[in-house]
Amino acid sequence: MKLFSLGVLLLPLLFLNACTRVPEGVEPVQNFQLQRYLGHWYEIARLDHSFERGLTLVTTDYSLNPDGSVAVTNTGYSKARDAWQLAEGRAEFVGPKNVGHLKVSFLGPFYSSYIVIALSDDYQYAMVSGYDKSYLWILSRTPTMPKDVLEQFLQKAKAMGYPVDQLIFPKQEAQPGNKPSAQPSR
């Protein structure tokens, strides 16, 4: 009976830990510099998930919280709802602060991997993975990305086993209406 009780207590911890792992064959960026990564990013491509389904004009803003964690603000426009959607969260490093492996939470104590797997030397373009290969984002500091850089990222993702043929390329045209403003993270 005691062994069963211990297993019941440890199972949720194992699940939560699994959500912050790095997928097999994937390496986080080394010599990562958070200060250079902070700021505004445009989503150039993503693998489809329910939490972003149908969104265009998707952007993410990263800023430093007073406690050293990272405030994450995602916005996207839903044409079906004719409304902006906003998600605010926080991210923290999983290990050393010079490795691009963070965990991000939008729901209280539940974290998921945020792994920077490719990054241009000038911090203008990035590719990010989740805890498995069904999560992939390609980001740019500008609404468009040079085709040669995009192709390099796509080839790298394909070589690591990501289903690049399933990527969605959301539009980044002129923004309708007023974009929501973020509230300070706590």
Automatic annotation (TrEMBL):
Residues 33-172 form the Lipocalin/cytosolic fatty-acid binding domain. Residues 1-20 form the signal peptide. Transmembrane segments: none annotated. It comes from the Bacteria. InterPro entries: Calycin, Lipocalin_ApoD, Lipocalin_bac, Lipocalin_Blc-like_dom, Lipocalin_CS, Lipocln_cytosolic_FA-bd_dom. Keywords: Cell outer membrane, Lipid-binding, Lipoprotein, Membrane, Signal. It is found in: Cell outer membrane. The keyword Calcium does not apply. The keyword Membrane applies. PANTHER family: APOLIPOPROTEIN D. Homodimer. Involved in the storage or transport of lipids necessary for membrane maintenance under stressful conditions. Displays a binding preference for lysophospholipids. Belongs to the calycin superfamily. Lipocalin family. This is Outer membrane lipoprotein Blc.
